[in-house]
Amino acid sequence: IRAARKNARANKVAKRLLLAQGSLAAIQRQANHQLVAVNILSRTIIRFLASGLTQTVATGGVLILGGILAEQEPEMRAALHAAGMALLSRKKASAKDSGAGSWVALIANAE
Predict the structure, then answer these.
(1) Is the dihedral of CA 70, 68, 110, 3 positive or negative?
(2) How far apart are CA 11 and CA 54, in angstroms?
(3) How far apart are CA 58 and CA 33, in angstroms?
(4) Are 42 and 69 in contact (CB under 8 A)?
(5) In angstroms, rounded to a whole number, what is the distance separating the alpha carbons of residues 7 and 62?
(6) Whole-angstrom Cα distance, residue 100 to residue 83?
(7) DSSP labels for 33-68?
């Protein structure tokens, strides 16, 4: 979260963001948000989706999921659909961009 705060300050958006670290339950107790970004391991994101992550997204809001290996994308798409989310967009970073394998980010909102 330290890096996220530093990037937010550098991009002059720190006052417009709520950056949170902790359990899903703690974050769910806060108000719903127009934009929720999660960048952690795919298996954790899938567990969060099954546990109500989408409840943190306001009506009409957007959920961005990052940290997804390209080969894990089908499983992540299925978890999004099961959680009532519709895929809006997909972004891919190639191995040369990331220094590792191919990664994807999925952008979704409520169906």
Answers:
(1) negative
(2) 27
(3) 5
(4) yes
(5) 20
(6) 29
(7) EEEEEEES-HHHHHHHHHTTGGGGEEEEEEEEEEEE
Supply φ then ψ for residue 51, to 5 degrees.
-100, 10
Secondary structure percentages of the chain, helix, strand, coil, to 5: 40, 35, 25
Query: For residue 66, what are the β-bridge partners?
Result: 39
Quote the CA–CA distance of 5 and 106 in Å, as a whole number: 22
For tokens 């409520």, the residue is: 110
Model-level pTM? 0.82
Q: What is the pLDDT of residues 22-68, one digit of tens each?
A: 778 877 777 788 999 998 899 999 999 999 999 999 999 999 999 89
Q: Whole-angstrom Cα distance, residue 94 to residue 111?
A: 29
